[in-house]
Write the C-alpha cells for this entry.
Amino acid sequence: MAVAFYDLGSAAGLKKLDESLLTRSYITGYQASKDDITVYVALSGPPSSCYVNISRWYNHIDALLRISGVSGEGCGVTVEGCAPAEAVATPPAEDSKAAAAEEDDDDDDVDLFGEETEEEKKAAEERAAALKASSKKKESGKSSVLLDVKPWDDETDMKKLEEAVRNIKMEGLLWGASKLVPVGYGIKKLQIMLTIVDDLVSVDDLIEEHLTTEPTNEYVQSCDIVAFNKI
C-alpha cells in the first residue's frame, strides 16, 4: 500500500514522518526498500535529535546504503514539496566528438603491454585482500532489534538505567537511538534500538545473561523484544 509524506523540509512534515516511524523500522514493509531511499534522499540531511524515530531510521538507512544493503522493491511512496532534480544538459554533438578525440589521444599514451611494477603488484594484492575481507563481512547477517527495558518502579533512576544498559559491550553489538515511554503511574520504560551481527550475538542471551543479571538488574526488572528485523 503506497504512502505519502508532504514537505519534509518543514516541522509539520517531519513530525508526521516521526510519528509514522514510531512503530516501524522502515517506511513500508519489513525490510529496507526503495521507499526508504526515496524518503532518505528527500531529507536535506541528518534530522534534528528531537526527531528520535527519524534519527534512528536515518542512521540505519545511511549505514545500509554504505554497505549496499537496500534491496527491497517497496510498496510505493511519494514525497511532496521537494524541489525536482535539475536536468543535466546534453553537450553539442561537436563537443562530444572533440571529447572522444581527446580520449583516443590519451589511449595512445597508455602502454597496454607494459610489465607490472612491484608497486602495482602490491596494490593489486591489497585490493584483492580488501575485496575478500568485504565479502566475508557480508556473509555474516545483521539484525535490527527494538527492546523495551522496564524499571522496578517509579523511583528507579532512568538515566542510570540507560547507562547500565549501554555499558554492556559485546563484539557484534551496537547500541542505537533510545527514548523514554510513559507506562503509567509515573513509571517510564526505556525503548532502545540495537544492531547485532547474527553469528556473534543472540538477543535472548543478551537479555538473560546481561540485561537481567547483575549489575544491570539493579535497575532493570524485565526486558522484551518489540521488533526484530533482518538487515
Notes: Residues 82-91, 107-113 have pLDDT under 50 and may be disordered.
